[in-house]
Amino acid sequence: MHSNHSLILQGRQLNGERKPMPYHTVYDPRGTVNAVPKPLSGRVIGFSGIKLGILDNTKWNGNKLLRKIVAELEAAYQFEAVNYYRKESFSMTAADELISEIVNNNDIVITAIGD
Amino acid sequence: MQDAIRLEDQGIPTAVIITTEFVHEAEVQKQALGMDDLQPVVIRHPLSTLTDAEIDGRAREAVKKIEAVLKA
Amino acid sequence: MTRIETTETAETTASTDTGNQLPSRLDPDRDLIEYYFEKGFTDGLPVVPPTPQKIDDMVAALGGSPELVECRIPPRWGNLSRQVLAINMVMAGCLPAYAPVVRASLLALSDPHFNLNGVQATTHVACPLVIVNGPVRREIGMNAGHNLFGSGNRANATIGRAIRLVLLNVGGAWPGDLDKSTFGHPGKYTYCIAENEEASPWAPYHVEKGYDGGDSTIMAIAAEAPHSITNHVADDPQGILDSIVSCMSTFAHNNAVSGGHCAVIIGPEHAATISKHNWTRHDVKSYLWYQARNTFGDIAFQHRYGKVYNRNLPKWYSRELDSEIPVVPSIDHIHLFCAGGESGRFSLFLPGWGHMTSPILRALDGSPPKSGDQICVDGMCLL
Known about the structure:
Chain A is α/β, with parallel strands linked by helices.
């Protein structure tokens, strides 16, 4: 019978004899995920007079979407600057230098597209 | 998502636009990278095959959500 | 975390993720194989239910310290501790002797230059292929000959499978969920081979790259399924290589439009003919790189869909319709091996994923190549 076979296989040696265990031991192959929690940055009060960064990850139509969004926002707000950036490839994270440049020159960022 | 998390971590509020197809992946990534509170801006899938007029519609959908996500 | 010994009730729980509770003890009447299927921990095939002894033996083979985290696997960024690696290896059916190969492979895949996050999530078919060099191949009984990519060899089959189980379970890249590959390919069950150094007329791959022949290494590359190349006619290098060039010169694979690396595996019969005419590894790679081309017009569909610049190709490629675009950016983007059975006039081309990933060559012990800048470009003077 299957369960007896398993019990025998998992038996421990006690006093030189195999004793059947009253249970199966099961294992989780997934491993833990332990992320260091990171808080969000503070939000802005309004959009007027601030610097807007646009990060395009180069996926299809992402650029068009972003430009149309900028057009809508510019109709409502006066930005100090609108800066455009492109990732090298949508399948890789942005280079550290690109991130630094964006951080140093913008107050908020809109990025697209994750699809 | 990873780029957005890096930007937020360096003090830049970021609106990351994703489509409905990507919501689960975004959820997993932001939890794995420790920024549960990051709220993406979700628009209807797809984007890549839309006409210009349809993209206009998505842009309008996105703008309100962008304001909500970036403003205090 | 995964196995708690208590003397309490028949079921005790251990948590791995928030909200994911797994009992570490189970009613003895439960069918273990079905249990692991139900939990969603398999690749679709039954896994070997781990026992305490098997796990202990595997952890010992990994060097002890079960809680030591070797690396993290995206996109879930799960911690690959030695205990968890042992669990996946036992489930795959590995012997403890395979541990250094599996570990080196996963360390290579988690190198940032490999971009495992991208490879796991892509809609493309590519998945990690591991190619083993050096004495370890014989020590653990790997197959480098007939049926190279096929079934029947425990080391090849279970090493590749253990890697895939880790990518699934620890990395969380489940098909249709975080793994968005439109088709996948059979290599996503297992994709691990050895170079046939004994049948090869040339120095092995890892020697070309600066290791000693006596070093054992693995090379990991994101690859499509192998494309077969038939040539039973040519009795000279050019004829055989022209067939390989023909296979490479298509705009259907990702290299053509996204650059990056690829692999070529020359069968021993073809290799014997090529080397009989004194062509070296370098000669072969150079010929392939120089000849394997598409026109820009082909790649751009003759501008039928608008003028596409294609930023994935290097900026120094001319975008005139009749200009010739190499399938990969350089000779060193072609990774050349000799493997497979000693009868049959066939070779293989394995396209890669594109410039978004780089193959990683790693010694089992993590040591760097000894010869640094290559002493022998083609390696023939060494072996």
